[in-house]
Amino acid sequence: MRRRRSRAKPSIEDLEYALRSEMRRILRKWNELNTPLKVFHELPGRPEHRPKYQVVIDNALRPWSGEGLLIRISTLTFPEERYEDKVLDFARAVWHLRDHLNQLARIASANMDINSHARKSQELLICADLINMKKHGNHDNQSGVNPRLTETHFDTSESGLIEFQYDGGLKEASILVEMPRPIKLRIDVYSVSMGDQVNSDNKIHKGMAQELIWKGFKHWWPLIDDLGILIERGDDNDNERKTIRSMLRNYGYIG
């Protein structure tokens, strides 16, 4: 019988490198979610009275054929799964820092309770509930607010006339605008009682999803400081540590 090879235990340096990698990923996702849609593709041969600039969503263009619904509206709202997936990926990355921090604290023999620290942040527990809902169809309501995501809101207040087609099967839209101006996107989090249906009118607004998730990320910062992950040490990784620390300081980090 062939013996299983035992896995080598990761070193503190390996775990710190993985944590810094995750922090960079979180920062990229935060910037991406806060960047308006500002790439447009001009469709040739459009009638003069119809919009001709197609909004590029997630670096992709859905084929446009025929005509869509013509509207003028300041906020266009519908389920847009491509953007919702970005929000949930952001929540997942922030929540799963817990696993990396737990592993590093254990290997470094640090006297800290990562799980207890996480439970003190409702925003972190909202992250956990949202990703469990996406993965399993339900959650344990760790946050106590039974969070749900709204549909995606497109700020089309400067877009002029809009032409709109929607694929309900894919939960994806094609949008043409008269004025190719940047379009901000937003998904909110709301709370409902555990016994209520998702479409109940008894909803409590908790805030913008990406901002709540970012607050959860900031809750990890004291532990990141205590573990010394971003402290310069005169080695080859100092430039990486300095860069991440500089990026975080743009958002109030003082470590």
Rg estimate, integer Å: 22 Å
Mean pLDDT across the residues is 91
Low-confidence stretches: none
Strands across the major sheet, in which order?
1-2-8-7-3
- Element string (H = helix, E = strand): HEEEEHHHHEEEEEEEHHH
Largest beta sheet, briefly?
Answer: 5 strands, antiparallel
Structural class: alpha+beta
Distance, first to last CA: 52 Å
In total, how many beta strands?
11
- Helix share, percent: 25-40%
Shape: elongated
Total count of domains:
1
Structural features, described:
- It is a single chain.
- The chain has helices at 12-33, 81-95, 97-107, 114-119, 122-136, 209-219, 221-226, 238-249, and strands at residues 40-42, 53-55, 69-71, 75-78, 147-149, 152-155, 162-167, 172-177, 185-186, 188-192, 203-208.
- Strand 7 and strand 8 form a beta hairpin.
- Strands 1-2-8-7-3 form a 5-stranded antiparallel sheet, with no helix packed on it.
- It starts with 11 loop residues before the first helix and ends in a 6-residue tail after the last helix.
- The protein has one domain (12-228).
- Helices cover 38% and strands 18% of the residues.
- The protein is built from 8 helices and 11 strands.
- It is elongated, with a radius of gyration of 22 Å.
- The chain has 255 residues and is α+β, with helices and mostly antiparallel strands.
- Helix 1 (12-33) packs antiparallel against helix 2 and helix 2 crosses helix 5.
